Amino acid sequence: MQIVTSHKNTDFDALASIIGITILFPGTLGVVPKMVNANVDKFLSTHKTAFNIIPPNDLNFENVTKLTVVDTDQWRRLDRMEKLRDRDDIEIHIWDHHMNGNGDIRWDWKCQEKIGATVSLIIREMRKQGVKLNPLDSTILLLGLYEDTGHLTYRSTTPDDAYAAAYLLENGADLNIAATFLNPPYEKIQKDILFEMMRDTKSVSIDNRTIGMNTVTLDRKVTDLAVVVGMYRKIMNLDAVFVTFINDNKSSTVIARSGTDMIDVGAVMKELGGGGHPGAASATVKTKDLSSPQIQEEILRLLHSQHKEDAKIADIMSFPVTQVPPTTTMREVQQIMAAQKIRGVLVTEGERILGIVVLWDFKKIKQERQWNMNVKAFMSRKIVSVPPDALPVHAAEMMSEHDIGHLPVVHEGKLIGIVTRTDVLTYFYGILPD
Fold first, then answer.
1. Looking at the predicted structure, is the pLDDT value of residue 434 above 80?
2. Is the pTM of this model over 0.70?
3. What is the pLDDT of residues 9-39, one digit of tens each?
4. How many domains are there within the chain?
5. Do residue 341 and residue 302 come from a single domain?
6. Residue numbers of the domain that contains 283
7. Phi/psi at 180 (nearest 5 deg)?
């Protein structure tokens, strides 16, 4: 017997990957953990008979000859699979997109890549084999893909995820059904928690990024908390949020969401024993290890540590800076820029920055005699500078806000470099502008 299973607290990526394996390898039986996410439970309540899946307690372990594990590579995360752990007569395959290096499942074959969703790896193989899907199969696979990529918006999303989504839509995936299960309606308890978080938000700033910290004590089991946290971040317009839900006196669950590339919540949650992705992650922390205040302190420590490793403006700026005195003619400036193949020159007097001339300023010259005029007549006097310890993303924001392409880098009143739009684009994308 060939079976496929995934982690406890099964999300849509795990469920979709289980079902995807049963489709890709006919005859494989899907074993869905007893504990699943609330929205997955709602889906299964009306759809489970449409798929070749069973709960773990219905499985005859003695007949298993091959085990496929999806969306995890750790035994402790599987549901009731202990009976298979020490058997040497079972072939084990793994499909996973988590690259945390914590896996302890000894595999015979593995497909583990950095990609937005595990199900995308399976869909890629389906595309290679020309597998035709019906609309229901396509829809459940799309649910898994969209959930783990934030509808293809998380920074962990890859081109293969987009190709997979296109393939599913070509095979009849229903976007309306996907939206229904990925955006479940709020009940009163979720709304009350949302309002409580909005009222008691503790905001902290790290490198000009606003982070929301919150602690909520639960007196009952509440579903769809991850959805509530995601909504909370958007309503409060926060760059990232970390909400600690105190379950009881034994454990707390931290749910984190990020809307910026500068904050990787997956890396933070991994350090707390959990995991996830740069934009969405969670962790369950035992109270004996960390209290809720200690959890927040540890999160802040990890965030500060994370940002110490980020590139600074000093790492990407250009130097030395080409400078000319204000008496330089526009013809001389043009010759300097052409010889050095640069797009801008700073106009300085001593250590003072008086202005800047860029290629666009040459369009102001309408008459031949103007080429012999001093640069100070054409330079822009509105200078916006940036410190060397600022982040590249801040430089990009300043350029966008002021519609400029050059930022002098100033430290303790002295010009030490210049960062250009080219420098920023090269840093973020590895490309140069036209």
1. no
2. no
3. 999 999 999 999 999 999 999 999 999 988 8
4. 3
5. no
6. 188-308
7. -65, -45
